Amino acid sequence: MRGVSRIYDGGAIAALRNVDLEIRAGDCVAIVGASGSGKSSLVNLLCGIDYPSAGTVLWKGQPMRKQAAWTRLRRSSIGIIFQEFNLIPTLTALENVELALFGRGMSASRRLGRASILLDRVGLEARMHSRVTTLSGGERHALRSRGPWRMNQCCCWPTSQPGVSIAPALRSLPSSCSSCATIPR
User: Do the Cβ atoms of 43 and 2 come closer than 8 Å?
Assistant: First the structure.
């Protein structure tokens, strides 16, 4: 990011002002800060869900300006963990994970195989055919926060809950991450 700002409500709210940020391949970054400090705005810009009011977002040194380019990147290289569970309640755990794999050029059998492996890795192999509405809060959290993004993807999530430790989440990051940087506010 170079000189990125994100302004809302005609300038009444400046979520980000003139942010310069470089995240290199292999870096693991946790974005933490108080509620309203701009974490979600930053993540949305880093993932191409939103666009800056000013400045440039770059990926591997190239400016990212088109929605189609961001869509391709999210399919292949970016995993997003939203603050809400964002699971489809009428689907099973397996189907929710499989859904995250659509658009990657995998056959149905390969998607199901990868989804099964991921559920096994997070301890949900016995619950893979259960609807997510029957999963406990902890199981839904495991499905959401340690599920599909573990497939060689960059991962980003904001947290602002007081007293919430991000250490367990950091320990579950892919082993390919060589370092971890925490960015306060």
Answer: no
Q: Tokens 């989440």 — which residue?
A: 169
Q: Determine the Cα–Cα distance for residues 113 and 35; give it in Å rounded to an integer.
A: 39
What pTM, to 2 d.p., does this model score?
0.54
Residue 4 confidence class, pLDDT cut points 50, 70, 90: very high
Q: Which burial class, exposed, middle or buried, applies to 165 when counting CB atoms under 10 A from its CB (0-12, 13-18, 19+)? A: exposed
Identify the three-state secondary structure at position 78: strand
| Helix, strand or coil, per DSSP, at residue 134 | helix
Query: 97 near 118, Cβ under 8 Å?
Result: yes
Report whether 36 contacts 85 (CB < 8 A).
no
Which strand (E) or helix (H) includes residue 169?
A: helix 167-171
Which tens digits make up the pLDDT trace of 86-133?
788 888 999 988 887 887 788 989 988 988 888 888 888 899 999 988
- Tell which residue, 63, 87, 79, 71, has the closest CA to residue 157: 79
**Pairing mode of beta strands 13-19, 2-8:** antiparallel
For residue 13, pLDDT beyond 80: yes
